[in-house]
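Quiz preparation item.
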């Protein structure tokens, strides 16, 4: 037992020790998070109280069931003590946080920027010492608050902030994947007995035995059930009700014995959706209850108030009061609260109370709730907006308004990733309209929902049908078809052809950006490389392009082979996202940039980019891009011969939660494992991987095309060149259409390997003369050097193998460097193996990213805003990097070769 304040915990030594370690880390400047998970009454709140009593400054909030649809209701309590520091935040973060609380302009933005603002604010609060954040009843947090806090929690590092959530036992109550959890379990029998003896020392032995048996080690039950058991018959058997319901019955039994005025006031408080005393008292007054009626509840230990806020003894008590009251009384309480909340800042809460008081459709209430939804959407409170739109639709008397509100609910749900709900709402709305354009919008929502659920073919068919229905509005049809291009990409050439045929025949106005972007998409899909990416982007921007269309151009540009231009465009779009605080699009853009950097032969840069992208995708729950970026990381590990990392990343990419063998990252995972096997000499296994990439749905994908040279090499090394199939024809066709020398170099190398041996040298030389990217050029030199050695031309072989080995070493391509070294050894040339690539090899990808920005003269605060970290975390990584780089200050960074590849 450990005492704190006036309370004492029994049997929680291990749980307390876990909390003690978390707090000790915070005192040392190391942040940490812990999720306490357990059934109602099990003692989670008591553990939060224990943590709060350990002498670290703390801030506290709790989810409230009646506030679950009010965006950022739970967040406000947590950050309110630190709002005086809000002016120290970067401008966009400051504006986002003020907007979330209705304290400034409410512009639509990335809801995750608010999470970054909270992270920065907590870091500022912890600048002078550790800070403890306690969040109780997290399962009842509004979704906007939950997402914001989880984003901040996952990015805590070196701020000295400890964050503890308490939530119900089910993982679905408060999903927190990736965060440390502690299951709070029932008390041991001896601890339960000690708690009973401390609270009810005079309990009769028979009742004591029943209590210990029926309470099951639940501390709240051990305290609240004695009175219930005492009122039951002595020979009563075990109560069949679940424990939570028994506790609610116990609580309501105590409430029912209070005076009528007290019960009325408690019901208003339970329905209020706010802990503030003033609106509760004003609303209760209209129902005949006053301040004096609060005293019996306080005397009975049911509530506590400090004059400003009113808190219930336990959340189950609030539920018991509300659910136990007759319907007419609940409706009257909501109506009284709505009549009281007349201030502009209370408009949203008032609308919800009006809706809760409604007994049937009411257009005025529906309109007020729709306005609430609009405001929630503007503040990035998308889940609250969906709930408000849906409830507004249910209360609508105007059929057109009802359908319009359902459409908005469905579209908002789809935008925020609530695919199942979006599909249900869209289906309901579609059943209530005959407007083909509205139906097409709804099918776009449903198609995206089906694609998000892994139903690629049904999604594709729905989108194509929706576009056909919307042809009289070409811009809407084109918008739907550009989405269908994405779904078709995961299906095959036939589906791609179907979509692009329709897209090509749409009469798009030349002054609309879609005419430029769709033209580039069509050229890329059909292998007609008539326009440069840069020129397309410039033309699209001149006509007001949607940034989402430019993101799609990055993917198409990689199909065409405009890798340098894709790198530039992706870097520009990433910079825009960082500047505007838009986090959601970053994983997509960082994936495209990582692909381009990999193809350009800059694996270190690709690793930095892909690592950041994967981390952000994990943080914000973008499973599609977790899969893709994990597979890209697997490929980079394969390049370096790091088998353990490669396989772990490939396993993550192919996880069942992302679709297993059909996961979005499957093509890159096959390529990664194939490259790993090829580099390590397991050619037969590699060949099987590369052959998979020649089949649909992988054949037409970016990596399916880019892995053709690997397929050719594997087939030749197996002495079975026929297995290369049509690889040479495809490479020749790509080289001719793209008109890019580096593609021609790949085709020439393939011809050297597959063609007559007496012409091999000619093609090897042609390949080298055409140039190419560093890794692929070094592979050509290696293959040419091996051919020369086999033909006993040792001096010529050495001139190819030596620079190949040096390039591989510089790129950290260990298996390939070793292969070149062995070849040189066979020529009698000693070549020592060399690990690493200079001064950068010792840095982690995140350290390198931070060091580069610091070398440009950016402050820690500027870097933190760029990378969505806290300034303290940036400083922590910088000081870890200094000794690795052999410097002692920021000023020395500019002289280092930090961009060397």
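Solution:
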């Amino acid at each position: 037992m450990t005492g704190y304040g006036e309370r004492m915990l029994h049997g929680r030594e291990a749980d307390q020790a876990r909390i003690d370690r978390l707090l000790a880390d915070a005192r040392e400047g190391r942040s940490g998070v812990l999720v306490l998970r357990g059934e109602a009454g099990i003692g989670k709140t008591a553990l939060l109280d224990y943590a709060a009593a350990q002498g670290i400054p703390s801030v506290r909030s709790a989810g409230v069931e009646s506030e679950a649809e009010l965006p950022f209701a739970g967040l406000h309590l947590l950050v309110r003590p630190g709002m005086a520091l809000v002016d120290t935040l970067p401008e966009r973060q400051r504006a986002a946080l003020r907007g979330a609380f209705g304290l400034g302009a409410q512009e639509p933005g990335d809801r995750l920027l608010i999470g970054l603002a909270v992270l920065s604010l907590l870091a500022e609060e912890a600048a002078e010492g550790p800070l403890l954040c306690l969040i109780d009843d997290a399962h009842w947090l509004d979704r906007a608050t939950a997402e914001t806090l989880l984003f901040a929690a996952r990015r805590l590092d070196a701020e000295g902030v400890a964050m503890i959530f308490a939530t119900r036992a089910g993982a679905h109550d408060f999903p927190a994947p990736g965060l440390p959890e502690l299951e709070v379990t029932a008390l041991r029998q001896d601890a339960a007995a000690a708690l009973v003896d401390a609270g009810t020392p005079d309990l009769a032995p028979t009742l004591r035995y029943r209590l210990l048996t029926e309470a099951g080690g639940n501390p709240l039950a051990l305290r609240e059930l004695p009175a219930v058991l005492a009122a039951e018959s002595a020979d009563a058997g075990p109560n069949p009700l679940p424990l939570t319901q028994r506790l609610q019955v116990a609580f309501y039994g105590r409430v029912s014995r209070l005076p009528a005025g007290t019960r009325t006031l408690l019901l208003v408080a339970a329905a209020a959706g706010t802990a503030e005393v003033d609106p509760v008292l004003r609303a209760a007054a209209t129902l005949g209850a006053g301040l004096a009626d609060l005293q019996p509840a306080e005397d009975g230990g049911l509530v506590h108030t400090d004059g400003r806020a009113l808190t219930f003894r336990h959340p189950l008590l609030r539920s018991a009061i509300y659910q136990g009251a007759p319907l007419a009384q609940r409706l009257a309480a909501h109506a009284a609260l709505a009549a009281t909340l007349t201030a502009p800042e209370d408009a949203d809460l008032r609308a919800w109370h009006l809706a809760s008081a409604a007994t049937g459709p009411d257009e005025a209430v529906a309109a007020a709730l729709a306005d609430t939804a609009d405001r929630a959407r503007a503040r990035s409170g998308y889940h609250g907006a969906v709930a408000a739109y849906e409830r507004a639709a249910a209360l609508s008397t105007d059929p057109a308004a009802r359908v319009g509100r359902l459409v908005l609910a469905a579209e908002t749900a789809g935008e925020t990733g609530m695919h199942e709900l979006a599909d249900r709402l869209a289906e309901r709305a579609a059943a209530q309209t005959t407007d083909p354009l509205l139906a097409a919008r709804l099918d776009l929502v449903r198609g995206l929902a089906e694609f998000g659920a892994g139903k690629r073919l049904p999604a594709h068919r729905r989108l194509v049908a929706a576009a056909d229905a919307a042809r009289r509005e070409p811009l809407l049809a084109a918008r739907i078809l550009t989405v269908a291009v994405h779904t078709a990409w995961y299906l095959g050439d036939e589906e791609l052809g179907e979509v692009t045929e329709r897209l090509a025949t749409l009469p798009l106005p030349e002054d609309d950006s879609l005419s430029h972007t769709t033209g580039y998409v069509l050229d890329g899909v059909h292998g007609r490389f008539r326009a440069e990416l840069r020129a397309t982007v410039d033309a699209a921007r001149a006509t007001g392009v949607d940034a989402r269309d430019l993101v799609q151009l990055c993917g198409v540009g990689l199909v065409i082979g405009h890798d340098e231009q894709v790198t530039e465009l992706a870097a520009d779009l990433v910079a825009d996202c960082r500047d505007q605080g838009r986090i959601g699009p970053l994983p997509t853009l960082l994936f495209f940039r990582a692909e381009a950097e990999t193809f350009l032969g800059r694996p270190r840069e690709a690793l930095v980019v892909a690592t950041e992208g994967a981390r952000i995708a994990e943080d914000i729950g973008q499973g599609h891009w977790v899969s893709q970026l994990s597979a890209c990381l697997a490929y980079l590990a394969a390049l370096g011969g790091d088998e353990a990392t490669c396989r772990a990343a490939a396993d993550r990419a192919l996880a069942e939660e992302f679709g297993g063998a059909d996961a979005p990252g499957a093509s890159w995972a096959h390529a990664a494992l194939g490259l790993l096997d090829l580099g390590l000499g397991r050619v037969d296994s590699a060949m099987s991987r590369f052959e998979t990439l020649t089949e649909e749905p992988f054949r037409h994908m970016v990596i399916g095309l880019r892995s053709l040279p690997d397929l050719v090499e594997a087939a030749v090394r197996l002495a079975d060149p026929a297995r290369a199939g049509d690889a040479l024809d495809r490479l020749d066709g790509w080289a001719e259409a793209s008109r890019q020398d580096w593609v021609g170099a790949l085709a020439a190398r393939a011809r050297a390997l597959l063609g007559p041996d007496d012409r091999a040298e000619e093609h090897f030389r042609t390949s080298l003369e055409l140039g190419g990217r560093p890794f692929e050029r070094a592979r050509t030199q290696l293959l040419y050097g091996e051919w020369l050695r086999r033909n006993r031309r040792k001096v010529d072989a050495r001139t190819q193998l030596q620079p190949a080995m040096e390039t591989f070493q510089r790129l950290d391509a260990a298996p390939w460097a070793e292969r070149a070294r062995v070849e040189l050894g066979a020529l009698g040339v000693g070549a020592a193996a060399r690990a690493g690539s200079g001064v950068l090899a010792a840095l982690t990808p995140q350290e390198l990213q931070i060091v580069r920005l610091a070398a440009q003269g950016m402050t820690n605060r500027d870097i933190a805003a760029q990378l969505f970290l806290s300034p303290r975390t940036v400083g922590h990584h910088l000081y870890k990097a200094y000794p690795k780089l052999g410097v002692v200050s920021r000023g020395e960074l500019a002289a280092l070769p930090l961009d060397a590849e």
